[in-house]
């Protein structure tokens, strides 16, 4: 994603998007809600398609952060459990 240039079009606040590649060069587009004000790209059929997003990061990163958080939580819980088991076996506690 690149820098956003604020502006006004028909009384609606917009951000001009660089590299429209034939698509509308601003966000939000006429069919988008007002909160979709960030220019972003998404991958579709081996081509990066420009679009408007509600967040200034790629949309696919949000589920990736959530999944990685669960994986990290799993490893932390496993490590705590593993240390507890080793400690109990070292002292002969069942």
State the shape: elongated
Cα end-to-end separation: 56 Å
Main sheet properties: 3 strands, antiparallel
Count of extended strands:
5
Q: H/E series, N to C?
A: EEEEEH
What structural category arises from helix and sheet content? alpha+beta
Number of helices: 1
Strand order within the widest sheet?
A: 1-2-3
Provide the helix percentage.
25-40%
* Range of strand content: 25-35%
Low-confidence stretches at least 5 residues in length (pLDDT < 50)? none
* Whole-number total of structural domains: 2
Instruction: Compute the average pLDDT.
Output: 77
- Rg, nearest Å: 23 Å
Transmembrane segments: 61-83
Keywords: Membrane, Transmembrane, Transmembrane helix
Structure description:
32% of the residues lie in helices and 28% in strands. The chain has 94 residues and is α+β, with helices and mostly antiparallel strands. It folds into two domains: 5-53, no CATH class; 60-94. A three-stranded antiparallel sheet has the order 1-2-3, with no helix packed on it. Strands 4-5 form a two-stranded antiparallel sheet. The protein is elongated. The N and C termini lie far apart (56 Å). The chain crosses the membrane at residues 61-83. Keywords: Membrane, Transmembrane, Transmembrane helix.
């Amino acid at each position: 994603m690149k820098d956003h240039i604020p502006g006004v079009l028909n009384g609606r606040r917009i951000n001009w998007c660089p590299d429209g590649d034939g698509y509308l060069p601003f966000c939000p587009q006429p069919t988008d809600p007002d909160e979709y004000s960030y220019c972003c790209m998404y991958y579709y059929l081996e081509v990066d398609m420009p679009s408007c997003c509600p967040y200034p990061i790629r949309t696919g990163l949000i589920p990736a952060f959530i999944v990685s958080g669960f994986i990290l939580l799993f490893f932390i819980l496993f490590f705590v459990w593993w240390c507890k088991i080793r400690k109990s076996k070292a002292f002969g506690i069942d």
